[in-house]
Design goal:
Length: about 375
């Protein structure tokens, strides 16, 4: 039978045997055995807080998701279901960042955009496996131009650049490698944005100890750790990205995931203030915003012309948490993925003028060729 003790009292220490050795007995205070053995991963308390709630299944305005990923060979039934799910969320347009290049890109355009011309657009990608070929940057720029002629409306750069991509000598390819300059210049000349994912959350580069906010995620997915004996520092990786932004002022860049500065919005704001060709988006970093509602709200109002809506992974059931954080002033509600946030969310209650810019107006301004029909003018 469990031993009950007053809260706050210390465990009993007893003397056993003539040697008078002291053995500390760990007592479980009134808990069943299953609870006593519960892990932190299993602990999911149900809040008893009673406050006003506003469950939202659809965004207030039609929105453009600038950060999504879909297969390029979806059949007509799968695409129809995708559009139905988008309609339920009030998603007016999805940007598929996994457009690849050449024949793959054309297949993706036929699968998605040709079937629903106003609902999808695709960004091309660069094949960095050819980084060691002579005139790589020039050749990649020529291919990008061909992809835009085929229907691509932007360029997406994945996080392997600057983090894990190496040339044949084994040297890491930094984001600001001069060999890539023709690609950035070509994007600017074509008038298309570059949505670039550089690096990882700063916590991945820190010791995996009890002070690390992403401890649970690193425990569940150890491969996400970026120890200093294998990777450059977070500051170096992000500094290389910012150098690219500075060197190519005629090219618009969208720094993915709030540029991993969602926990330091003032620093991100300084970057946006300094570089007018830089924008950002909120994919996969909602948890950072939802824990600082007053500061984040003020930040969004100040930088309302520079932030786009993005989600990243396609999971329709998760979008309503975005809507609730952005649109309501609700308090202390759950995020959708525990390993990203063991804390609760709070609503920012953004003004309608800011919501419209975040949901669609900013994307329409910097991504060419978007049909304005589905979006309020």
């Amino acid at each position: 039978m469990p031993i009950s003790r007053p809260l706050g009292s210390s465990p009993t220490l007893r003397r056993f045997g003539p040697s008078a050795s002291i053995v500390a007995l760990t007592l479980v205070v009134g808990l069943p055995r299953a609870c006593a053995q519960m892990t932190v991963e299993e602990y999911t308390p149900r809040s008893t807080l009673k406050v006003p709630t506003h469950e939202i299944s659809r965004a207030r305005y039609p929105f453009i998701d600038v950060h999504n990923h879909q297969r390029l060979n979806l059949d007509s039934q799968a695409v129809a279901q995708l559009v139905s799910d988008m309609d339920a969320l009030n998603m007016g347009l999805m940007v598929n960042l996994s457009g690849r290049s050449g024949a793959d890109l054309r297949q993706g355009i036929a699968s998605l955009r040709d079937r629903y011309p106003t609902r999808f657009l695709l960004f091309a990608n660069v094949d960095f496996s050819k980084i060691d070929e002579p005139d790589f940057g020039t050749r990649a720029a020529i291919q990008l131009e061909a992809d835009v002629r085929a229907g691509a409306q932007g360029l997406k750069i994945f996080k392997n650049l600057g983090l894990t991509l190496r040339d044949k000598s084994g040297t890491r390819v930094p984001t600001d490698d001069p060999r890539l300059d023709p690609i950035w210049d070509k994007a600017g000349a074509l008038g298309i944005p570059v949505l670039i994912h550089t690096g990882e959350p700063a916590s991945f580069f820190e010791p995996h100890d009890k002070f690390n906010e992403r401890w649970l995620e690193l425990k569940q997915i150890p491969s996400r750790a970026r120890p200093p004996n294998r990777y450059p520092s977070w500051e170096q990786i992000m500094g290389e990205q910012h150098h690219v932004f500075e060197k190519h002022p005629e090219t618009n860049f969208i720094a993915a995931h709030l540029d991993w500065m969602g926990g330091d919005l003032d620093r991100l704001g300084q970057l946006l203030d300094r570089l007018p060709n830089v924008y950002t988006e909120i994919g996969a970093v909602l948890a950072e915003l939802g824990r600082q509602p007053r500061h984040a709200r003020a930040w969004f109002i100040r930088h309302q012309d520079r932030v786009l809506f993005g989600k990243d992974s396609w999971a329709p059931e998760e979008y309503p948490v975005y809507f609730r954080v952005l649109e309501t002033e609700d308090e202390y509600f759950d995020y959708y993925r525990k390993r990203h946030a063991f804390w609760k969310m709070y609503g920012l209650g953004l003004p309608d003028t800011v919501l419209r810019k975040l949901y669609y107006e900013n994307a329409m301004r910097i991504i060419p060729g978007i049909d304005p029909t589905p979006f309020p003018q």
